[in-house]
Design goal:
alpha/beta; about 30% helix; about 350 residues; six-stranded mixed beta sheet; homodimer; 14 strands; six-stranded parallel beta sheet
Chain lengths: ~350, ~350
């Protein structure tokens, strides 16, 4: 390993994902956990070992005072897992950046700018550049299955016409908050109403869409997003919910990106109880065509925690600013247009 | 696209792979082809458009004088595709580096150091650093299917016990030199003799092995390599060969890497006529386990040409020195050891 030494890490947010990443970090010889921030009254003052469910204590207690923790512990990087929405996390991220600390965040909206979040990205980017630190939004989805992995696969293609990503998840195997987010047990009309209020559904589909398009050098002329309930035909039970026939037992969340009047990006996320075949499948209509299947699909929360930890070196050593797949050097698509000769093949 | 402008590229070596990459480069708006080098008497003086099989001429003629071409054309990068062996290419690479030009090469032995090529790597690395340029050995195999892609997939794992990569190729679909390299039409004893003399078989399996191990932070205590002929049971025909029953119609080339007495890396390359199911399959025994299948397998030569071209920006903008997957920032494995608690899961 090319390790400089140990990375000093502060955890900011100790919900499900934060705790999973914390457990990995405590077991990782390349990381020294030096502080933790959370505003939950039940967690403040608790030892990280206890929160992580370990027998040993770490000697590090949770504090609600982010500024104090950052200045006292002198971390290289913060692992930030408080919230999905850029509006809500911006003050937190700016506080981290102002303290001169790099940041890896699981916030879905921090993964890639949408047209309506572009300004907030620019503001964070400029501040990060000014303070000489890097910020990365990442995770399994967005951040890997529907964007990073397909882009990595296009590295073998000389031309790409369209990209389709399907992710089929058995929602019954997932944690409670996720089951709630896919509408488990709701009346379908109620689900549709909550979707319209942006209170339901997967966060990050459009972020994946714009990241893919940017990686492929494509300007999308139109983007569509559709969320539908999957309705139970008979009673089904999960660990956390009992869903009666006629109620919502999950959702289909699809995104379409258009170019030249054609659908060139299709993102198809299905999360419900008992799908026949959970999987991730990436279909690249290109030269050559590529079809890749991940058996069972990449497990969501575990993979996000791993990706957060694995991202530490690239963020600490990265160029100052707000990173994304395009600003990170592992994707390089030289061909923004399909050459004419390929169209006729 | 984040393009600075056009990359000025010289082609060094205009065999099968070089010509494929050249065709892509001519069609790529981000690249300007500014020169070409080959020692083949038949190619010297010819226009690149003619060699690439295009109707238009490019005004650039092939020259045998590498030094002259490099100093006259002022390229950003050379795409080098002359030979597999580090001994043979070292003078060429050093010439390119001494001219202050970056280099992307398809030479299999330049992909990753083996214990017996380590010194040559260090010499090239030091020279490249001194001249402020980057050198990268890459391609589909080694460079992608058996190393880069599996490492990219481990980014979702918190621990990895073993990695197995299978690549099954229908040799009948491949170009003539490759069919010859897998022993097509030879007497099996002759094939085995030529394998012992290193005149037969796939180049780069050990490079993939050491790259994978380095990416995972593993020191291998032992490495084994086995090459066997696949013998035809009845007469088979390809575009280039007729193979009688009892003759070689391809090969199995396997590599095993050991750690703690266990096989932790298995590379299994099968190239012969008419396999039941051509594919690439990556099986990661880890937390979580990951099984990924590429239907039909990634097409070899086309993918190598694409990867060479896609690598141009990262090499031109890269840190000076000899790059490899570990020196490139897209792979970061923080966990070199399987945590104890994962072993019992």
């Amino acid at each position: 390993m090319n390790r400089v030494s140990q990375y000093r890490v502060v955890f900011y947010g100790l919900g499900e994902i934060g705790i999973r990443a914390l457990r990995l970090a405590i077991g990782c010889e390349g990381i020294s956990v030096v502080g933790a921030v959370d505003t939950d009254e039940e967690k403040i003052g608790q030892d990280l070992g206890t929160l992580a469910g370990l027998e040993q204590r770490t000697g590090i207690a949770v504090s609600a005072n982010a500024e104090g923790v950052l200045s006292a512990s002198g971390p290289d990087v913060v692992i930030h897992t408080t919230n999905s929405l850029i509006e809500e996390i911006t003050p937190q991220i700016q506080g981290i950046v102002s303290a001169g600390v790099n940041c890896v965040s699981s916030a879905e909206e921090l993964f890639h700018p949408r047209p309506d979040t572009h300004q907030q990205f620019e503001a964070i980017h400029e501040k990060a550049v000014r303070h000489g630190v890097s910020v990365l939004g990442t995770g399994v989805n967005p951040g890997y299955v529907m964007d990073g992995l397909p882009l990595f696969l296009t590295k073998t293609c000389e031309a790409v016409r369209s990209v389709k990503v399907e992710r089929v998840v058995d929602a019954a195997t997932r944690r409670m908050p996720l089951q709630r987010k896919v509408g488990m047990g709701l009346d379908p009309d109620e689900f549709i109403k909550l979707v319209k209020e942006h209170k339901m559904g997967h966060r990050g589909l459009l972020e994946s869409m714009y990241s893919l398009a940017a990686g492929l050098g494509w300007d999308l002329e139109k983007v569509e997003e559709k969320v539908e309930p999957v309705v139970a035909k008979k009673r089904v039970r999960t660990e956390f919910f009992t869903v009666e026939a006629g109620q919502t037992m999950g959702m289909k969340h699809r995104g379409y990106g258009y170019r030249g009047g054609e659908r060139v990006i299709i993102l198809d996320l299905r999360m419900f109880v008992g799908p026949r075949q959970p999987l991730d499948r990436i279909t690249i209509d290109g030269v050559p065509p590529i079809v890749v299947t991940v058996k069972g699909g990449i497990p969501g929360d575990d993979a996000t925690a791993s990706i957060l930890i694995h991202s530490v070196p690239s963020v600490v050593d990265g160029k100052p600013g707000l990173m994304n797949l395009q600003r990170m050097p592992f994707i390089h698509t030289m061909f923004s247009q399909i050459p004419e000769r390929s169209r006729v093949e």
